[in-house]
Amino acid sequence: MKVVLRLLSYLRAYWRWVVVSIVCLLFLTILNLLPPLFQREIIDEVVGNRLLDRLPMLILGLVGVYALTRLLNFGEQYLRHVLGERFILDFRVLLYDYLQRLSISFFEDQQTGEIMSRITNDVNALEDFVTHSVGFLIVDLLRLVGTAIILLVLDWQLALLTLLPVPVLAVAMRLFNTRVRPIYRQIRDRLGDINAELQDNISGIRVIQAFGQERHELDRFTQRSTRYYEERVKGIRYWATFFPAMRFVASMGMAIVLGFGAYRVFSGALTLGGLVAFISYVASFYEPIHRLVQTDNIVQQAIAAGERVFELLDTAPEIEDAPDAAELPAIQGAVVFEGVSFRYGTGEEVLRDVSFQMRPGQVVALVGPSGAGKTSIANLIPRFYDPVSGRVTVEGHDVREVKLASLRRQVAVVLQDTFLFNGTVRDNVIYGKPDASEDEMIAAAKAAYAHEFIMNLPQGYETKIGERGVKLSGGQKQRLALARAILTDPRILILDEATSSVDAEAEYLIQQALKKVLEGRTALVIAHRLSTIRHADKIIALEDGRIVEVGDHRELLARGGLYSQMYRRQYDLVAASDFD
Known about the structure:
- This protein is of the alpha/beta class.
- It contains 20 helices and ten strands.
- It is 64% helix and 10% strand.
């Protein structure tokens, strides 16, 4: 019930639409109650008493009722379905907006396909709740009460017989809800599994084909689809049994009323027209009951979908603005780590008491073996995560005490795993600064040594690069990512293995370009190729999450420590490769 009430709370913004729809349904309810009265008059007065002069007016009135009913029906259905579509649109946008505010750690723990399923399939499942449940629930209850009153007025004894099946229907509906709700939740979960599997396999189709695992992946997908099918069939079995059974119970009520009503007509206690009208009202009495049963089924499906959607909305961002967060003013780029320790989730610490500083305009390089904590340090500056202890400051401001947007506007990150959007080259270069001029875009591309290869593409800057830039080489993708970062003119630039996928010539050109780009900017560079950071102002060597050495290239070589060992090992490998 909590899920239903919460869903209804989101409908408050559309209360005018809901009220108009309910008013239309109320008028429709009243109009639907009138035809049996016309039928009674035609049978008892026109046919029974042979008053043919009254027939034209009664027929005309009946046609008028039918015409007005259809007109109102059109308006009400149009309004109700537009309301449903508008609700789904706004709710999906709200959900996506909230999703973007969740922390990076949330997306690391969730499958992309599962998240997509909640925003698409589960939200779509709520449309029937809005379209067919909210208004009908109110109107059908009123129609039920109104029809019951008319039945009691027409013949209270027959009316009591009509009400006999109602307790049976209520108990059956309660049992149905108890059994079917967990099934509907399983159906939603299984559909999420299928979407997650599809997303993974489509993204990794090259790996699947390269290793010849098509048969294996087909078997896995078939298993997931079969589990979804089995849950669907289980749900179908329940409602395919329940709904006919409910109609059978209602039909028994109709049969009892018809039999006893015929007896009362023969005894003279009821006219034939009265019986026909009563039978029509009995049908009108059971119709909202049947629809309430169907509405209840829709509500159960909406509850199952709503639970999954609200699980997403109830996920609190780990990283968000403090209540008193201030706007970060324009900075020069000073960064200080003070006794920072950090872990991912509940795992072991990956940084232990890390302290260092980066002066404005300084190029600081992080080196160390895999898992030493280099990327973790880079992630703490734009506050993708918060330290367990200690603090990170930018220009003297603790990053936890400033607004995220104002911090990230002045920090740019170029990652080793380059992500490009499925659009044109232009779309990707200006992504961080959509209002950039043509000259600014080209200047950024030239600075990243990307302009030349862009101009050689079929449509230049208007060339579509495919999903994740699949039509470009690794080096081209990284140069586009670098151009995207340069265009935002950040005060702090983080390069996480940003040149790892480029060839030696492109790497040299980018290094030359970075000498100009980094002037006046603070840069944090993570690189496995130690030859690319020889000119860094400061090199920090990390091992097991701790700083073991700090100095420039010459100082660290002279010490013979970790950096010296790594550098000479790489030098020997390159020399051996050249010799071969």
